Amino acid sequence: MNFLSHYYFDRDTSNCHFILGTVLPDLLKNADKSIILHPEKLIHPDPKVNAMIEGWNKHLLVDKYFHSSEFFLTHSHHLKKELTGAIIGSPVKPFFLGHIAIELILDNLLITSHQVRVDDFYDHLDKCEEATIREFLVFAGMQNPDVFFKFYEEFKRSRYLNTYVNIDQITYALKRICMRVWRNPFTPQQEQDMTGILLNYRLGLLETYPVIYQEITDKLT
User: Is 164 exposed, middle or buried (0-12, 13-18, 19+ CB in 10 A)?
Assistant: First the structure.
């Protein structure tokens, strides 16, 4: 699941460090895909650092439930099939595109259905103490936390998750993700065709998408 979908399950939580922990695995992946940390079983004397560890573990659990769900398996497969025809000649693997696309569409639906407020999410991140975040990263074994903070400050400043309200920005986000692996993933025409496919698919999910959040909530409780 993407950032806002992870936030959904703890949107009523007041502990900002826990909230950060629930999205930190993906933030680190965005900052530098070579960063690999495993703080899952660590215990720290600072409760704020421990809250981040607990949030991290919540992230892993939610992703486990989501990626093994019939919802994810079905819709990532259908999107893969629909997008395949739009990206003929692209180096991007259709199964990769289907996987990421369903996660981004879900974030869009949470925003447009008013299930989460993007500004509330960012407000949580703004309240987190840099010293606590740095301590977590060092404690988890990261050699150079500044690599993360360079990305993280821009992530907070840009507030780009607000753009997910627009489907064409979902296509742009897909393109940016793919550019980490493939230099020129799509032509302008392919992007336009993808946007049309994503828009139609989103409309088809509008009434039924909440079932995956309920399913995961039930498993978490």
Answer: buried
